[in-house]
Write a structure and sequence with these properties.
The complex is a heterodimer of chains A (about 325) and B (about 550).
Chain A: H1 16-47, H2 64-93, E1 100-107, E2 110-114, E3 120-122, E4 124-128, E5 133-139, E6 144-148, E7 153-157, E8 165-169, E9 175-181, E10 194-199, H3 201-209, H4 218-228, E11 253-255, E12 261-263, H5 266-274, H6 297-309
Parallel strand pairs in A: 1-5, 4-10
Antiparallel strand pairs in A: 1-2, 2-3, 5-8, 6-7, 6-9, 9-10, 11-12
Chain B: H1 29-33, H2 38-66, H3 77-112, H4 121-143, H5 157-161, H6 166-193, H7 206-238, H8 251-285, H9 292-305, H10 321-349, H11 358-381, H12 383-389, H13 393-423, H14 429-456, H15 470-500
Classes of the chains: A alpha+beta (about 325), B mainly alpha (about 550).
Chain lengths: ~325, ~550
Amino acid sequence: MQLPLPLYPPEASNFAPPVDGLMIFITSICVFFAAGITFAIIYFFFRYHRKAPDAVGATVREDPRLEAAWIIVPLILAMVMFCWGAVIYVDYRHTPSDTLDIYVIAKQWMWKVQQPNGLKEINELHVPVGRNIRLTLASEDVIHDFFVPAFRVKMDVIPGNNHYNTMWFRPTKAGRYHFFCSQYCGTNHALMGGWVIVMEPTEYAAWLSGSGAGEGNPVTVGEKLFAEKACVTCHVANGTGRAPSLNGLYDAKVLLAGGTTVIADDAYIRESILQPNAKIVAGYQPLMPTFQGQLTEEQILALTAYIKSLQSQPVPAKGAGIAPASGAGTSPATEKK
Amino acid sequence: MSTIPPVPPEYELPDTHYLNATYGSGRSIRAWLLTTDHKRIALLYLATVTVFFFIGGVFATMIRIHLLTPGGVLVSPETYNKLFTMHGVAMIFFFLIPSIPAVLGNFLIPIMIGAKDLAFPKINLLSWYIYVIGGSFVLYSFGTGGLDTGWTFYTPLSSIYSNSAVTPAVIGIFINGFSSILTGLNFIVTIHTMRAPGMTWFRLPLFAWAHYATSLVMILGTPVVAITLLLAALERVLHLGFFNPAMGGDPILFQHLFWFYSHPAVYIMVLPAMGVVSEIIPTFARKTIFGYSFIAGSSIAIAVIGFLVWAHHMFVTGESTYAALAFSFLSYLVAIPSAVKVFNWTATLYKGSISWDPPMIYALGFIGLFTIGGLTGLFLACLGLDIHIHDTYFVIAHFHYIMVGGAVMGYIGGLHFWWPKITGRLYPKALSQFAAIVLFIGFNLTFFPQFILGYLGMPRRYHSYPPEFQVLNVLSTAGASILALGYLLPMAYLTWSMRYGKVAGPNPWPATGLEWKTDSPPPTENFHVTPVVDWEPYDYRNRPDLGLVAGTAAPAHGDD
């Protein structure tokens, strides 16, 4: 399949060719300079070898232009590297809108993956070729890192209340590729890896609808949790409860006490569950208890999926907490209540 | 009169010098342990850092043997994790950071500027004791359960999840930090206030400039890491939530605080080595160093910009894109002063009168390895590339090129350069040239394959790995066995030479610095008469006292 001693991993995502191109560019510049310095040293070493035991070197006049040249030329080359790298980095961090969303949960020392339909995998990730994939990463314990060398992608998986890290890529070649945990996470760090299986879209669809699909559908699980944890007693769908209705909430702009707004994304929902008092919706009291320590990362993701499924539900006229459409961003207006 | 050098005279050791001086209790152990002579304290440091280098080296050897096969041949995962952690802690905090400043800097800075001692001799001794106490805590941690957090102590792994002896290790590093701070303080005050008549700032040896810059970093950076590690220990022991998200802390905050010191710490390790090389190159090229003020200025630039690049260790933590752009940009800036140094050293060789003495081979080896280490830093500073190579063996290779190829090569080169001054004796020349070449080849064979391993995607800190990585790992281990020989040889012949080496005389190379104007070994008060400096640094053309062909005749090599 490969050379006995390959110099780079397979190129299997949209990021691999540009990253390898950049690698070749920087390597060329560095080899040029390293070779130049090495050659100069070796040449001088022999050319100016001491002729007599008491000989001293010649006086060489220093030239400020020379000093300027070897400051400015490397600086220009460094800036080219910086800009080229920055362009690729911005692409890494700018997730397209049409992604297939998959959740990845890390814990010492395994990976749990949840496909959009709720299908769960352990230490494997199946993805279709040619689709933009977005992974949302959560950790149950310490910092981990999801690294797929063949895709040239890597992102830390950080425990915490404030944000999820996400990463995206578009697989370009079907096959099986290693993924690793690349942030040291304790005893079995080296065993915390697995395989990314890139399939043709039709195969992927067949695989997805195959064994066990739907039994742990996160929306269903989330709906059940929503009732079990008594969320439903306050978050009443028609907006008459002590807490805002969650209909149509996901991805909408929420008006907070104090006049600022926030987009109700995964991270906001997670924070609101674990630290309810961090951001209070305008017009509501800080009554909600924290669920810190009472929900696993998986359960939080299930609740998020359920709330997401309410996106299409009718938004009540009152009590939704969603910022009025006119108040685009900066409007300090209080909620009409 | 001018024909002295071709037939070197047989020198004899001076009757009294700092090693045999009979002040206090003379040569007893007590006289050494209570000494305030910076030269003796330097030798105390030499003994202790060598112990830690040896301990760290044993761990490194075990790591490389273990990685011979994909499944690992030697130890369990728990033990492997402890090995690389303890290797890092011993090498970084207790060998690399103190090695050149506390051994060579301690010995040389007062002599180089024409002073009798450091500004605070008792504090100098205190800093050695602090180092020993801190080191004892760390050894206690190693001996009672070991340490498995990685030398970076990332939270919440270190503060909550690890079952190893984290607390004593962290306390040891905390204590040891004060040793660094006090040494830095001593150097800065000494360089400011104790220069001999005529020793102006721009006549200072570049070694002193490098240590001045290093001292700034030590004083400004070390308190931050000390407090950070203490907070991690408080979280571990008293369950105060600083970094653990389950207690309301922020694990990323730890990384910011940790790298705020630990990136500049890289410059603590490599700047002094640059200082050493800046002394060796002009001496063995017998020529004024090219671009003195640029080399001196670049040390200060590195120290300053080095404080502004820390978050380039965190490009994949999800830090904001704007922060990443800023830190990448600044990281490229800090590369420039290092490049300036390399170009100036190379230019110094042009039209020199170059000898192949052992220190020169080490110094040229340093330039080669440091250049590769520095250039591969450009890959890691590059945002688009760092995502792929971050936390892989590429990083391991890069920083070993800087720290081992750079700092350790500089340290051993410096030992070879000043050994005749420190001990008064020479070591076998051919053997040490051979050792330098063995070291260079062994180093490259060990660490160059790791660049490729890293790009192929092998993550660091893995006790086992997929079979396709085996060939490169075996190469690396083979190189390590050659590298080990490269370290054991100097340890052996330098020790041998202390008793049996040929007596060196005051200035065997000859070199231009003030330290070569006094006896070898120097007297306790360094100079019999306070020296007056009336020459420019590294000037071979107007130094008749050196007895070389370009100068006019001189009476002899010169004491007094």
